Amino acid sequence: MAKPRVSKHALNSYTIKAINKTIRPGDCVLMRPSEPSKPSYVARVERIESSSDARAGSVRVHVRWYYRPEESIGGRRQFHGSKELFLSDHFDVQSADTIEGKCTVHSFKGYTKLDAVGNDDFFCRFEYNSATGAFTPDRVAVLGSFRYCKCEMPYNPDDLMVQCEGCSDWFHPACIEMTTEEAKRLEHFFCQNCSSDDQKLQNSHNGVRLSDMKLDTKRRRR
């Protein structure tokens, strides 16, 4: 006997009753991991499809996976932020029932401008080839609109940096032989190139008003 033909229909949206959230193509979602001890997978919904085949699940989502740095071939590096993701070339089809919630994957620039970072906020500045381990772009800008240090390590929004009041360049505390706690207590800072004898005296670690500090750290967690 011939098998009944399975019909499929594209959906513009779908409400997941378990979490009372409506998803649409283009949304970023958190998906149930293969092991409970692992963090939720992150994916971008490309297409939502209903099926008449009950065995396959009535609604399925076509997704494009985001990888975390530790899931990439090269692993996590010093400049990778804790909320950083890579948009991969890995496409998949999953049951809509595996979606645990919605999230937001910001551009790198947008993420650095957030007043507060929530649990469901992430950022992406690379696309990732899961077969070769190659990234696009293949390097990270360290100049221009991105803060940089004399070490030329790409900017990690998790790291505290100190700004020179002379040249406006930014520095990691360790790169200027300073602890993070000392950097947080700074009232004024001039880098080695901008320091005169008088300005060196202003690189003080005492009597600081926090509202006056030239510091930048990862945005507050909600």
Describe this structure in words.
The protein has helices spanning 108-112, 180-184, 197-202, and strands spanning 8-11, 14-16, 21-23, 28-31, 41-51, 59-67, 84-95, 99-107, 116-117, 121-128, 135-136, 161-163, 170-171, 215-216, 220-221. The chain is mostly beta strands and 222 residues long. The protein folds into two domains: 8-146, Roll (SH3 type barrels), CATH 2.30.30; 160-207, Herpes Virus-1 (2-Layer Sandwich), CATH 3.30.40. The longest helix has 6 residues, at 197-202. 7% of the residues lie in helices and 34% in strands. It contains three helices and 15 strands. The radius of gyration is 23 Å and the shape is elongated.
Radius of gyration: 23 Å
Number of strands: 15
Chain-averaged pLDDT: 83
Structural class: mainly beta
Instruction: Please indicate the percent range of residues in DSSP E strands (runs of 2 or more).
Output: 25-35%
Strand order of the largest sheet: 4-5-6-7-10-8
Helix content: under 10%
Return the CATH class of the largest domain. Mainly Beta
Keywords: Metal-binding, Zinc, Zinc-finger
Domain BAH: 21-139
GO molecular function, one term: zinc ion binding
Domain PHD-type: 146-197
Question: How is this fold's topology laid out?
Answer:
Elements: E1 8-11, E2 14-16, E3 21-23, E4 28-31, E5 41-51, E6 59-67, E7 84-95, E8 99-107, H1 108-112, E9 116-117, E10 121-128, E11 135-136, E12 161-163, E13 170-171, H2 180-184, H3 197-202, E14 215-216, E15 220-221
Parallel strand pairs: 7-10, 8-10, 9-15
Antiparallel strand pairs: 1-5, 2-3, 4-5, 4-8, 5-6, 6-7, 10-11, 12-13, 12-14
